[in-house]
Amino acid sequence: MNQVTLEIPYEIPVDAHNPVEPFLRMDRMPHIWCPGCGIGTTVNCFTRALLDSKANLDKVAVVSGIGCTGRVAGYANLDSFHTTHGRALPFATGLKLANPELQVVVYSGDGDLFAIGGNHFIHAARRNMDLKVICVNNLTYAMTGGQTAPTTPDHVISATSPYGVFEPSFNLVALAEAAGASYVARWTTYHVKQLSRSMEEVLSKKGFCFIEVLSPCPTLYQRRNKMGDGLDAMKFYKQVSKIRHGAPTSECALTKSGEIVVGKFVDRDRPDYLELLRGQMTESLGDRYAEPEVSCSC
Amino acid sequence: MHADPKGVLTGVHFLDGDHACCEGTLAAGARFSAGYPITPSTEVVERFAWRIPTVGGIFIQMEDELAASIAIQGAVWGGAKAFTVTSGPGFSLMMEHIGYAAMTETPCVFVNVQRGGPSTGLPTLPAQADMMQARWGSHGDYAIIALCPNSPQECFDLTIQGFNLSEEFRVPVMMMLDECVGHMTEKVVIPEADQIEVTPRRYTKLPPEEFHLFEPREDLVPDMVKAGDGYRFHVTGLTHDERGYPSMNVETQDVQVRRLQDKLKPLANGRALCETENLDDAEVVVVSYGITSRVAQRAIQLARAQGIRAGKFRLISAWPFPEQRISDLAGRVKAFVVPEINLGQMVHEVARAAAGRAAVIPVSHAGGSVHNPDAILKAIVEAAR
């Protein structure tokens, strides 16, 4: 057997630590994600974004649904909520409205946010609720064994589509824009710098922000479709991705092996839910309107 | 502590049960509600939507009951007292999040104004057929509290009590109204704020480094925190250890899930809420709740007029069920008569507690109206024979 030895060109200091460690619950490591999975990469980008944004971490909360990406909440060293399948957004809605000083980040997968949680997604976007949604899109239900998701492209083989997917898939960025999102971007886990910057950008942007991150699932999606391992996914992303900021989202649908349009597609200013609420109540009630004091010591 | 006067509409009012329930939520300190319209419960949140902007809080109409029942829990972890309102079909959809509230020990209130079922059933007509669903409807083992008001005044009073119990035990509390109680209009007296006791949330006094989110105190209930206070805590519906971290093993499951049930034991007997009359000499006891208890009252009067020693046992807290008290009675009465607007739900609990020592006679009704008192009287007469 050939043994591969990694040459480390310098001595690692004994007290060395990864700069993202303070953002993670190190007592929960190792995480559950497979080798080659992209979710960890997105978490790394997220911690970089938090670091660079200089956000007060006591005021950042992460809300996840169920699934592989749903486990992000459990590893983030923040106030974090692992909710029920598909319901991260309505939970986050309540959390944000009760405590508007919180920066609420919804971190979940494509199946969670767009199948079982699809209705909540369009309504949270319609309301322009001040939530930052990071959707890790691995094009499949990974936690349960690689079944067809509403994002799985045509012809892909999955656990529940053994002869190939034939139903049309969602174009998430077009859906987000149509539903009213203030900010819409897409990256892959190959685009770590751009992804970190987008995440940092939404942390200072008001309203409903949506970032789709294409992320490989070597264990299920790629294996079944003979697409190689995590490294092959990076090569694939590098090869077929094209950065087109401002591209019409209707032209950004994904296929099994075709072009992946990435970039920032939408960045617009709309009043968010709380601004609209205050405006309407002040108009209707004048001085009788009492500012919400939802969170109380009682 | 006393109620915040901002939410208390002190005075003598003429209100229906739904509106009185809404005033109860405001007096109890609820400043957040998420709802989805459904007959015959919607008036509760319609009034909340009308009242809350001048009190200082938020009502949001969500896209469905799934969303409403989890949005309130987000609000609770953000520091609010919160509730949602529904009826049968919506209650079915909320089961997922009643389980989540039980598992994550999120204090919150679910108001269910019961209507005829199953499925869409009788949207505008009464039933009491969600009583078992309230207790067992979500999957897994857990325990909840369910209160059954029988008048608009009680819709106000018990809603406050429901919020208080939910804070004390950190469980979801079900307010089990029915269409009749919800739509019945009567005098409701709302006292001064300083006459209303409100249970504050039990926030921890420990600093973050010493605090564990699910470490129970002596009463088996852990203290709370809220988001944004620097505790960096984790909440999950997965089985979790005292730190709140997922823990997939038999030991943690055993400790945590048993505690979810055991913490409510003090309520089951000594503190069970019930109303009794004429039990001392009773040979037949009518066990009832909600609107049916008012019909039963008439049947008991008629029975007494005939010389039958009938007594009244009204369940105010249906869950936990006052098992010991029914058991004690079973040793000395001839029979229990259990009228309810369903085909037999709480009657099974009565039978279980009576354990064969007294006859247990159901007076069932498929829903759509209240009983005729004569039906209950007939059962009492037969039981006394």
Give a written overview of the molecule.
- The complex is a heterodimer of chains A (298) and B (385).
- Chain A is 33% helix and 15% strand.
- Chain A is an alpha/beta fold.
- Chain A has a single domain (21-288), classed as Thiamin diphosphate (ThDP)-binding fold, Pyr/PP domains (Rossmann fold).
- Chain A has an 8-stranded mixed β-sheet, sandwiched between helices.
- In chain A, α2 (72-75) links the parallel β1 and β2 (79-82).
- In chain A, 50% of the residues are buried.
- The mean pLDDT of chain A is 95.
- With 385 residues, chain B is of the alpha/beta class.
- Chain B has 2 domains: 11-195, 3-Layer(aba) Sandwich (Rossmann fold); 274-384, Rossmann fold.
- In chain B, the strands form 3 sheets. In chain B, strands 2, 3, 4, 5, 6, 7, 8 and 14 form an 8-stranded mixed β-sheet that branches. Chain B has a 5-stranded mixed β-sheet with strand order 11-13-12-15-16, sandwiched between helices.
- Chain B is globular, with a radius of gyration of 21 Å.
- The N and C termini of chain B lie far apart (51 Å).
- The model of chain B has no long low-confidence stretch (mean pLDDT 97).
- At the A-B interface, β2, α3, α5 and α10 of A face α2, α3, α4 and β10 of B.
- β2 (79-82) of chain A pairs parallel with β10 (234-236) of chain B.
Please report which band the strand proportion of chain B falls in: under 5%, 5-15%, 15-25%, 25-35%, 35-45% or over 45%. Answer: 15-25%
CATH superfamily of the largest domain in chain B: Thiamin diphosphate (ThDP)-binding fold, Pyr/PP domains
Are there runs of chain B of 5+ residues with pLDDT below 50, and where? Answer: none
Number of strands of chain A: 8
Mean pLDDT figure of chain A: 95
> What number is the mean pLDDT of chain B?
97
What is the helix tally of chain B? 13
Number of domains of chain B: 2
State the helicity of chain A in percent bands. 25-40%
What's the alpha carbon Rg of chain A, rounded to whole Å?
20 Å
- Class of chain A in CATH? Alpha Beta
Please state the second-level CATH architecture of chain A: 3-Layer(aba) Sandwich
Apparent shape of chain A? globular
**Whole-number tally of structural domains of chain A:** 1
Placed side by side, the strands forming the largest sheet of chain A appear as: 2-1-3-4-6-5-8-7
Low-confidence stretches of chain A: none
For the largest beta-sheet of chain A, the strand count, sense and barrel status come to:
8 strands, mixed
